[in-house]
Amino acid sequence: MIIIVFRARIRPMADRDALAHLGARMYELASSMPGYVSYKDFVAQDEENVSIVEFESLEALAAWREHPEHKKAQQLGRDKFFSEYHIQVCTPVRDYRYEERAP
Prior knowledge:
The structure is a single chain. The chain is of the alpha+beta class. It is built from 3 helices and 4 strands, in the order E-H-E-E-H-H-E. The chain has helices spanning 16-31, 58-65, 68-81, and strands at residues 2-10, 36-43, 49-55, 82-90. Strands 2-3-1-4 form a 4-stranded antiparallel sheet. Helix 1 (16-31) runs antiparallel to helix 3 (68-81). It is globular and about 50 Å long.
């Protein structure tokens, strides 16, 4: 399992509708790729955006990272939407969960 943490700040004057449209297209594309597992998106109180994306392997992530449409979106992000971003690619050290069961 590979976990990507994408933290970003949106430029004050960025076209948020255009960014939302682009984000929806990137989700559609990424979620159809082999090895895609999940995606969650959050906005912190200080307006930092955080996305957590999971892929099954580094190879699946590399295919996503190098997808031509995604490469164009990356450039648009730098040119038009983000004032800054930070990407961390991680592997879990430990992975467990708890689920309450009905009596």
